[in-house]
Amino acid sequence: MTSRLPALDDLVRLAVAAGQAIMPFYRGPCAISTKADASPVTEADRAAEAIILAGLRALDPALPVIAEEEAAAGRVPQTGSTFVLVDPLDGTREFVAGRDEFTVNIAIVDEGVPVRGVVYAPALGRLWAGDIGTGAWRARIDAERDGDLRRQPIAARQPPAAGLVAVASRSHRTPETDAYLARFTISDLVSAGSSLKFCLVAEGKADLYPRLGRTMEWDTAAGHAVLRAAGGEVLTLDGLPLTYGKRERGYDNPHFVAVGRATDGL
What we know:
Helix content: 25-40%
Structural class: alpha+beta
Largest sheet: 7 strands, mixed
Strand order of the largest sheet: 3-4-5-6-7-8-9
Number of strands: 14
Strand content: 25-35%
Number of helices: 7
């Protein structure tokens, strides 16, 4: 990974700026349309993505960026081993429904691995960040103004003997997910939206997040980066690490499981 790449603080700054652009749409009118894959897209998605793309270009014009709405419009750059994945508003269904579980996701991928990432939940005033070289942290921040980030280190936990805390998608839970969870002793099951599920595992509030449904690389890379920096991992159902840069698959992920520390039976 070259030294020219945006630093973690650069990604944090861009994520917060994008979150500030989203919030007026969350509180007021926001035009909604439907993309070719039947998923919703809003003015807020586009406004946040424009801010992030402009900011990344200013930092390194040569760095390839794959962003959700650009990809939906057919604008996907050629990438080498290092590139950025951007989901400007993950959890659009939660956003449209007036729930606060939506996030801004920015991640740097190097050799197929997410090595640096930020997940920002502007309606919750919470931010998670991680770098595999320095670890992971969370912070509270006011979406309305730039403020001091009071950073608290986070780490994935060892699974408790009494049973696992599992987290599942609020809007995309499937029967296959329930069947997978039935293999384990589950003490609690938490529903959450967007990439917040990765963050719950990363900060030791959950142990297991299976996703047996469709996701795209920009949906998962930032949360994956935070979780890896916190000591966790994301595996495909055959036990291999989830990788990125799958252009031949249209950047579509296989089913996966995000875990904290070692969990038997995966």
